[in-house]
Here is the input.
Amino acid sequence: MKILSMDDRLAKNRFDSDDHNPHIIIDKEACKTCDHKACTFCCPAERYKWDAQKDKFSFDHVGCLECGNCRYVCERLYRSMTGYSWNYPSQGKGIIFREG
Ligand code: SF4
Ligand code: SF4
Here is the structure.
């Protein structure tokens, strides 16, 4: 049985992303100073990525499953600190589950 990549698995759902109004906002430069980077471990859709060798932090709100995990493990998101916010997508936007 072929093991699907995360992107292949996410492609089984449909996303109507609101590119002008992303529902999760982070400060990728400031994230480099975060000492735990828990988001990179807790996101089931692997939206947060940290490459220490390249000193590069990346995040993509497209593909977010809206589970809320990152909001609870990240004190900056949880407290809506400057440069950080978490909201559900506006009505009709976001993920449209096709499976499960
Ligand atoms: S846990 Fe929050 S502050 Fe830390 S890297 Fe992730 S999004 Fe950035
Ligand atoms: S809400 Fe869930 S799926 Fe979306 S970015 Fe946060 S942890 Fe990942």
